[in-house]
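Appendix B. Raw example, untouched.
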Amino acid sequence: MMKFSRPRRRFSVPMNATSDVAFLLLIFIMLVALINYRKEVKIDYPEAAKAASKVSDRKNLELWMDKSGAVYIDGSPSTLAEVENTIGELYRNAPDTRIHVIADRATPFARVNDVLAILQLLEYRVVSFVVRDKT
């Protein structure tokens, strides 16, 4: 009997597609980084006076009000009772959190005043009104 020997093959990982995979991974990471997780209500901002100042965007709660007077907490529809409960809980847990009141230019002032009355009742003092810069 004759013994046949097979040629030994070395195992190797094909490297041709490595750059393609790296490029697709880079595109995926860039797209995920561009996603804006902040919920916004479409409103027409009032214009700022010259004395307006900018504040930090960290540690804040946003109260949105559209032109019909509906109130949103960080983009989620809410009632005035929910606003009061949320602000009361926030004041107990993190009293230095700034509340941004963001109201449409056409929002009835009575609805804005309802929110301000809640803030006054709870004696919350770290409040900002968000407006559009004139320039």
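End of appendix B.
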